[in-house]
Structures are given as structure tokens and as C-alpha cells.
Amino acid sequence: MNNDRLILITNPGSSSRKYALYKGQELVCSLHFEFEGKRIICTLKKADGTSKKIKTDFKSLTSTVANIEEILTAEGYLGGMSKLDAILARVAAPGEYFSHDHIVDEKCLKELEDAKKKAPLHVPVVAGEIEHFMTSFKGTPVLQISDSGFHTDRPELMKAYAIDQEAAEKYDIKRWGYHGLSVGSIVHYMKSAEILPEKLIVCHIGSGSSITAVFDGKSHDTTMGYTPLEGIMMSTRTGSIDVAAALALKRNLKISSDEALEKYLNKKGGLLGVSGKSDDMREIIKLRDEGDKLGTFAHALYVYRIQSAIGQMAASLGGVDAIVFTATIGERSDEIRKMVCQKLAYLGFALDEAKNVAEMPERHTNIASEGSKPIYVIRTDEFEEMIRRANDLLEDGVEG
């Protein structure tokens, strides 16, 4: 692996832009662009944790890419012999093509354009970001790193919907799965730490959430499907819902189009939809503690859906040797870990309450009680995984 490559990672959101500059596997600095009033402010954070605000004169997030090189040069990170070796963008899009990593070329841009129609909520922002980088950084390789790539080699049984299989093949309709970069990061870390068991369940619980079954270090089954909407309840996503129920919502709420319905299920469901007040688990727990009826119900439903999915993944694996909690809620909420584990005794898991609330000393900790199968809390590192995959692609010199 080349530890001297300067790699910029883009992580675009609907209301902000985030970038991270790495040298090899080491973080150099990060940039966060967001609105402050009508103008955009850039917060630059150095590897040592110190940060500074940089005022800009542009008023659109689409202008960030064209200004990144100037900012990084002014701050001394680029210039002279220091030039970007690659730019990485995570892509979560349905289809066989996007279950692999690619160096972006005309074919990839065409595939991204087609994917916008298949996943109008998840693809357009990152596709636009990639196009801007291709224009502003001519000659620098731009790589799209697949968020479903880790799940590519799952058994076909776990990918299939119960629909006409000829139509499924023709139109590329399968359960592609997502959060592959996070789960891949966990698996690689556990291998290096020599704690990877044969049968593992990874609970990626954040604003988006999924539960993945891992067998012998490879993805076996996962809860997300054609898009990241399927699966367990999330912060604003409904998770799995009967299509007829979704259409009933469309009729009764007079939702204007299929795209508007998809947006509603992604943005108005989950914790926010059930509680009617918040998509933040910390606020949901507070609402529950205050006796708020819908907040209490949202909390209970969220925990129940995770417990059910763990049972599903255990059945898929034919047993389970260890469980991992990761991502924002999984890593930080001792409350959610405690509630989820309360019903896992039948699988051989029991949580140690003192270990669960203690500060995590390193990248991982085992919070299981004596005699229990391991219950790990492991900090995921999707950027580390992206760089590892990018280096493989760049060193091969061909698309993976």
C-alpha cells in the first residue's frame, strides 16, 4: 500500500459538504462547508484536533469543489510537490455496476446519470459532486467507491426478491445492501485484532441503520435492499413497509408522485415520523423519560425492530458467535445497547452494565458479562476502508 498518496474524500450531504484529506491512512485535515446565514462558512479541522473558520464569498454548495484546492493551498496542504493523487466519493446506488468500485470515466458518468432515475434521493448529490471534481481537478483520478461492494458476493438467495426472476435480471432489481464500507471496516479491524469469529452480526446503528450477518469474514445477509430504505426503522426512514401501505399513504395524504412518496418514506418516517417531534435518539430518550407517549412508543419500536433483525440474521447464519455495535448510536448510546441486549439471552448474550457505561478505552471493547458470548463496541472507520479499496484499485490500474 502506498503510504505517500494524498487522497481527498468527499462526503456530500443535502445541506452541507464534508471533505477529508489523507496522506496514506493518516488524516491530514478535514473541511466542513455549511451555511451561516446566507453565506457559506468553511470549518477546517487539523489532525491535532484544532480548528479554524474560513469565510468564503460563495453562496452555493455547488461552488465548494472549485474552491477546495485554493483553500488547501493557502493552508499549506497542497502546492509545490504536494498534489492530490486521487479523489474518492462513496456511492450508494442500486445495480450490478455500482456494486463494484470504478475509476470514473465516461461510462461511469453515464451509469451515474441512469442511476439518478433509479434512486433520485441518494444519487444526484454525489453524482453532481463527482462531475464538479472531474471539471475542477482535470488529470486527478476520481474514484467511486461502492457502499454495497462488501455485499457483492452474498449468496443469490439473500439478494433475491420474490418476483419474476427474468424481470429482476433484466431491470437489475435485487437486494444490493448498503453500509458495506462500515461493515468492511469492522471486519478488517477484527481480523487485525484477531477477534473475528466465524458467525458475526454487525449492528450499524446511526441516522441510517442496518444489521448484517457476516460468515467467515464475508457478507452473508443484510437488512437493506434495493435502496437504503429497506430494513429496520431509522432516524427518518420507515424501514421495510408493505407497498400497499405506502400507496395508501400516497392516496390519503395526496402525495403527488412516486418520487415524492419515496422522499416522504425516507424523510418523514422512522423516529421522526413515529414521535412526531425528533429524529435524534438522545431527544427520543428524553421524551420517553418525560413520559411522552409517542416518544416512548418510538423508542420501543426502534429497539424492537433491531432485536427482530438480529434474530433474522442469526437464523440466516444458523447461529451467532459475536455481536458488534457500531456507528453513531451503536458506539455512543449505552441505553440502546442495553435495551437491545435485554432480549438476546436466547442467543447466548448477556451485557455487563458497568462495562456498557464505561468509556471505551481503545477502538474496541467487549461489554459482555462473564460467561456470555462477546458483545463488542467497535468504532467504524469508513474512510479508512475507502482508502484501502482505492489503493487496491489504483495499484491494479484497472477497474475492480
Judged by helices, strands and strand pairing, the structural class is alpha/beta
CATH-defined architecture of the largest domain? 2-Layer Sandwich
End-to-end span in angstroms?
A: 16 Å
Radius of gyration: 21 Å
Q: What is the domain tally?
A: 2
Give the biggest sheet. Answer: 8 strands, mixed
Share in helix = 25-40%
- Beta-strand content bin: 15-25%
Arithmetic mean of pLDDT: 94
Task: Please give the number of β-strands.
Answer: 14
Provide the CATH top-level class of the largest domain.
Alpha Beta
CATH topology-level fold name of the largest domain: Nucleotidyltransferase, domain 5
Question: Mind explaining what this structure looks like?
Answer:
This protein has 400 residues and is α/β, with parallel strands linked by helices. The chain folds into 2 domains: 6-149, ATPase, nucleotide binding domain (Nucleotidyltransferase, domain 5); 180-382, Nucleotidyltransferase, domain 5, CATH 3.30.420.40. The chain is 38% helix and 21% strand. It is built from 15 helices and 14 strands. It has helices at residues 64-74, 106-118, 124-136, 156-159, 165-170, 180-192, 243-252, 258-267, 270-275, 281-289, 293-317, 327-332, 334-341, 353-357, 382-396, and strands at residues 6-12, 16-23, 26-36, 39-46, 51-55, 86-91, 102-103, 142-146, 199-205, 209-215, 218-222, 322-326, 364-366, 375-378. The strands form 2 sheets. Strands 5-4-3-2-1-6-8-7 form an 8-stranded mixed beta sheet, sandwiched between helices. A 6-stranded mixed beta sheet has the order 11-10-9-12-14-13, sandwiched between helices. β13 and β14 form a beta hairpin. The radius of gyration is 21 Å and the shape is globular. It starts with 5 loop residues before the first strand and ends with a helix.
